[in-house]
């Protein structure tokens, strides 16, 4: 109830903001709009009509709007950018974080990006160009250049005084990194240690020399897992010779984890890049078609298997009724094991426990699931098919073997793919399902063919 009341109050407040904007009351609009939380500012701005959005741009300075722009999704940024005047955009970029500017300029026309960089302040432009030079999805590409460096000889009092001047421009001040004369990373001081330290105490006396850092060319996903493992708010980025070049903060890591999770989900569903709802139907179909065509060829193998066991089916047509059950259950079991394997590889738990432990566990799980399903199915078949226990035995044994194999395949395939340094998520659900369909049918018809002579219909 309190949450609903709070939401109503916010909606009423936003109506007041829009009223001041529509009436072009500069003072009241700025007072009310800038009092909103940045997230509420962004949401409100995006809901405005284009004419009112232009009015906001007139009422806010480029520096004030920079905070909003860098918080927008890329799609919204690309839509809004053409509406900004040239000078307004340049000034806005000068006040944005270098990593956010680099991310945006990498998505627009290269000539426009170069033009913007040439018009920006020299120091800001240099920072952005340094970040854009790194390969995508590396630590260097997602790091920020706005951070605090400390000299070992500085005192606590001197650092606190300096923070009053430099902190507003920094991405974070909770960790303060210490460098030597050659900019090599030598230590780290937490803000808490700095506050409680005696004013005359030096940084060298306060700092910890055991600094966890990442290299500039490390994969962004590895960096994200490191920050998650250590519960860091930020991690320093260094060159191979330990020279400090930037930091990666936890908010950047959240974006990375979301991006990687989206990619894994796309791969898992065999639709990489096609889950973005902003894509046209043609673009989505183009991205999804290759996987579906590949899986279609796998489906032809299924048809071929059925054709090879045509004589078995002609003798006992009733076997065909259980084909979807065998295929579907085996495919579902394999997909479940696939999810366990991909999750284990993503979190690093397989590295800690070894690969054989999860394989043995999934084999045991598959055997138990197969046994349970076999017993249940045999009872059901014997009841519905007038005590035909032989038929029940064939279907039950086939399901037991198929589920046991499917669980192992769902675990092993991602492990093999990972060994080749390929994202294990490409062992997608549809791929594993189709593969287990084929194996399930092979098991089913093999068992049926061997035992067919004992079936009494």
Automatic annotation (TrEMBL):
GO terms under cellular component: plasma membrane
Alphabetical list of CDD domains matching this protein: CBS_pair_Mg_transporter
InterPro entries attached to this UniProt entry: CBS_dom, CBS_dom_sf, Mg_transptr_MgtE_intracell_dom, MgtE_N_sf, MgtE_transporter, SLC41_membr_dom, SLC41_membr_dom_sf
GO molecular function: magnesium ion transmembrane transporter activity; metal ion binding
UniProt-annotated location(s): Cell membrane; Membrane
Main location as per UniProt: membrane
Residue intervals passing through the bilayer: 289-306, 318-342, 363-385, 391-417, 438-456
Keyword terms: CBS domain, Cell membrane, Magnesium, Membrane, Metal-binding, Transmembrane, Transmembrane helix, Transport
Record membrane topology: Multi-pass membrane protein
Domain of life, per lineage: Bacteria
Residue stretches making up the CBS domain: 143-205, 207-263
Protein family per UniProt: Belongs to the SLC41A transporter family.
Quaternary structure, from the entry: Homodimer.
Function: Acts as a magnesium transporter.
Listed name of the protein: Magnesium transporter MgtE
Organism annotation: Shouchella lonarensis
């Amino acid at each position: 109830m309190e949450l609903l009341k709070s939401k109503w109050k916010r909606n009423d407040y936003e109506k007041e903001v829009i009223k001041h904007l529509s009436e072009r009351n500069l003072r009241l609009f700025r007072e009310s709009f800038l009092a909103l939380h940045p997230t509420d500012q962004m949401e409100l701005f995006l809901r405005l009509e284009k004419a009112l959005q232009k009015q906001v741009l007139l009422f806010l300075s480029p520096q004030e709007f920079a905070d909003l722009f860098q918080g927008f999704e890329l799609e919204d940024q690309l839509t809004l950018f053409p509406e900004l005047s040239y000078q307004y955009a340049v000034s806005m970029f000068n006040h944005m974080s270098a990593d956010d500017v680099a991310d945006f300029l990498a998505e627009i026309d290269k000539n426009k990006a170069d033009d913007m960089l040439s018009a920006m302040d020299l120091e800001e432009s240099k920072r952005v160009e340094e970040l854009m030079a790194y390969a995508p999805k590396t630590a260097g590409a997602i790091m920020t250049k706005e951070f605090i460096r400390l000299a070992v000889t500085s005192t606590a009092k001197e650092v606190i005084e300096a923070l009053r001047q430099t902190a507003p421009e920094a991405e974070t001040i909770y960790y303060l990194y210490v460098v030597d004369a050659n900019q090599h990373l030598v230590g780290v001081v937490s803000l808490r240690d700095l506050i409680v330290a005696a004013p005359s105490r030096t940084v060298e006396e306060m700092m910890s020399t055991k600094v966890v850092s990442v290299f500039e060319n490390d994969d962004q996903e590895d960096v994200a897992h490191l920050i998650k493992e250590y519960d860091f708010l930020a991690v320093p980025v260094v060159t191979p010779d330990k020279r400090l070049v930037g930091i990666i903060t936890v908010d950047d890591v959240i974006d990375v984890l979301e991006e990687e999770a989206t990619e894994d989900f796309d791969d898992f569903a065999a639709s990489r890049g096609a889950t973005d709802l902003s894509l046209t139907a043609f673009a989505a179909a183009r991205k999804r078609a290759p996987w579906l065509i590949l899986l279609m060829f796998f489906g032809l193998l299924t048809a071929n298997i059925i054709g090879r066991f045509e004589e078995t089916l002609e003798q006992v047509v009733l076997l065909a009724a259980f084909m979807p059950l065998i295929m579907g259950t085996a495919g579902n079991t394999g997909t479940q094991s696939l999810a366990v394997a991909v999750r284990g590889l993503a979190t690093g738990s397989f590295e800690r426990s070894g690969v054989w432990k999860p394989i043995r566990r999934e084999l045991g799980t598959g055997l138990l699931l197969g046994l349970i399903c076999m017993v249940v199915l045999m009872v059901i078949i014997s009841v519905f098919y007038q005590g035909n226990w032989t038929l029940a035995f064939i279907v039950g044994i086939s399901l037991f073997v198929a589920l046991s194999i499917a669980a192992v395949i769902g675990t092993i395939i991602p492990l093999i793919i990972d060994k080749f340094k390929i994202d294990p998520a490409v062992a997608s659900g549809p791929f594993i399902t189709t593969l287990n369909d084929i194996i399930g049918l092979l098991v089913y018809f093999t068992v049926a063919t061997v035992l067919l002579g004992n079936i009494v219909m």
